[in-house]
Amino acid sequence: MAMGLSVIGGVISAVGAMKQAKASAKAEKLRERMMSLEALRKRRELVREGVVARAQATSNATAQGASEGSALKGGIAQITNQQTRNTLASTQDEELGHGVFRANRQYAKAGGMISLGQGISSLGSAFG
User: Fold this and answer.
1) pTM exceeding 0.90
2) Long-range contacts at 12-16 (CB < 8 A, ≥ 24 apart)
């Protein structure tokens, strides 16, 4: 009787571990999608901010009669460079995030394998 319960417990434990690993992987996928969407929104926001900043610089220069000068061109170039740096940083952050999610998926898979191995081991000891 005890051996039968041990076998059943080992099987249930192994099945539960596999279901848990699958659910964890699904949650990680959803979190990764959420991170990607947030990064996309951030890049769009940066582009909008750059457009507004360039428009304000042009408007201010025109109001001061300096719309033909090199100061305006330099200011717009500086705004564009800052926007490019910020967009690059956002993209790099997203790439690092994807790396973290890949590592988390590998960790979850390994945990599932460990649980499966423990379940099989307990089955073996029930028969041994």
Assistant:
1) no
2) 13/115, 13/118, 13/119, 13/122, 14/115, 14/116, 14/119, 14/120, 16/115
